Amino acid sequence: MALTSRHLLRLQGMPKDDIAQILDTAISFKEILNRPIKKVPTLQGKTIVNLFFENSTRTRTSFELAERRLSADVLSFAASSSSVTKGETLKDTARNIEAMKIDMVVIRHNAAGTADFLSKVINANVINAGDGQHEHPTQGLLDMYTLREKFGKLEGLHVCIVGDVLHSRVARSNIFGLQTMGAKVSVCGPATLLPRGIEQLGVDVYHHIDDVLPKVDALNVLRIQMEREAGGYFPSLREFHRYFGVTKERLDRAGKPITILHPGPINRDVELSADVADGPHSVILEQVLNGVAIRMAVLYLLGASE
Ligand code: CP
């Protein structure tokens, strides 16, 4: 069955059945990733363009791998070496690429709303790979997949998102997606790194990490986004680590195992200590693998809607 939209722009407002369908479809694609031959002909004949206007390691390689595993023709476009540097607009760039008869566009951009805009000016399916501080829907989906795989369900889980929520598109996608699937979401961080009015999204707000640890099943620890000037919102990285850093000592004091997620890239020993990042309760590298399966599922389901 096709998804209700032909684009993936956000998890806010996405129907529960659509999210469940993507998560369920990703199970079969993960199974393919574990085979000796990891390629299927599902998107043979389709052409997908990856438009990355902002740096990325995980998302870009994960989309490219997912597209190639599905046998699509793949074109990856780095804004820094394109005619964007000569002043060409996003609309003109996208429409010129589309004139070459492409089927899908994956876009990452530092401006919120870019994927939405693109979906209105081109006919190809558009997938948001992160737009400014707005949303990162495939990250939210892969986080949910990883949690569901670990706990067997999302309904009733309590997940706390820790750190630089203010600048985080991952936080927003997690909040919307997890709540739709019946999980409870809290946020924890210094007041300066939590968006004003965030409780209106239905989350509980904590300013002391030791208060929330005994209550949660999982922490999704966010990167301090220094490139978005997050360092100006608290006195020093050392102080942030002392009050909000997720450390082994803190987790031990909570008296129960807590699953640790992080979307990457990690600032080791700032938001997350190295022994926790590499420890037995970390699912960070599983998130990376699951990201390929989730992106295969999204590409397949959107491709199937045509
Ligand atoms: N999680 C994530 O979006 O990482 P990248 O910025 O490396 O793509």
Could you please describe the fold and organization of this structure?
The chain is of the alpha/beta class and 306 residues long. The chain has eleven helices and nine strands. A five-stranded parallel sheet has the order 7-6-5-8-9. A four-stranded parallel sheet has the order 2-1-3-4, sandwiched between helices. Helix 5 packs across helix 6. The protein is globular, with a radius of gyration of 19 Å. The model has no long low-confidence stretch (mean pLDDT 94). It binds phosphoric acid mono(formamide)ester.
Question: Which labels suit this protein?
Answer:
alpha/beta, Rossmann fold, 4-stranded parallel beta sheet, 11 helices, globular, binds phosphoric acid mono(formamide)ester
What's this entry about, in short?
Helices cover 39% and strands 15% of the residues. With 306 residues, it is α/β, with parallel strands linked by helices.
SSE blueprint and pairings:
Elements: H1 16-33, E1 47-52, H2 58-69, E2 73-78, H3 90-98, E3 104-109, H4 114-121, E4 125-131, H5 137-151, E5 158-162, H6 169-180, E6 184-188, E7 204-206, H7 209-212, E8 218-221, H8 237-244, H9 248-254, E9 259-261, H10 274-277, H11 284-304
Helix pairs in contact: 1-5, 1-11, 2-11, 5-6, 5-11
The structure holds phosphoric acid mono(formamide)ester (CP).
